Amino acid sequence: MSNRKDKSPHILNTSATLLGICFVVLTSLNVMQLTTKTIMDELTTAAIVMFMTSSLLSFLSMRSTESMGERYEQIADVVFLAGLFFLFITTMLLAFNIIK
User: Is residue 100 part of a domain?
Assistant: First the structure.
């Protein structure tokens, strides 16, 4: 139980921060009118969905019973990790000019 109480707030805090960063990137793309020229808006939107899901599941984990909370936290962990890998791959593709 203490492990869950220690990990869920960290997942929630970090995924919410990354969610905010993704919103700033998406807004910047829209303001610069680059959404029709790149696939960055689709990639950023996918990251937003992953980090929002992770945040929601982490919050539910802290508010649920022990057994359901552990399950929510496990799923939040996986979704958060997928979001991190997704952002890493997107960044590498951009860095090596694979995505224009």
Answer: no
Question: How far apart are alpha carbons 46 and 26 in whole angstroms?
Answer: 11
Whether residue 77 lies inside any domain: the answer is: yes
Range of the domain at 30: 2-95
Three-state SS sequence of 4-50: HHHHHHHHHHHHHHHHHHHHHHHHHHHHCCCCCCCCHHHHHHHHHHH
- Exposure of 33 by Cβ count < 10 A (0-12 exposed, 13-18 middle, 19+ buried)? exposed
Count of the separate structural domains present in the chain: 1
In a domain, 13, yes or no: yes
- Token code pair at residue 59: 């919050």
Q: What tens digit of pLDDT does each residue of 23-76 get?
A: 888 887 778 776 566 777 788 889 999 999 999 999 999 998 888 999 999 999
Q: Measuring CA to CA, how many Å separate 36 from each of 81, 94, 95?
A: 29, 17, 20
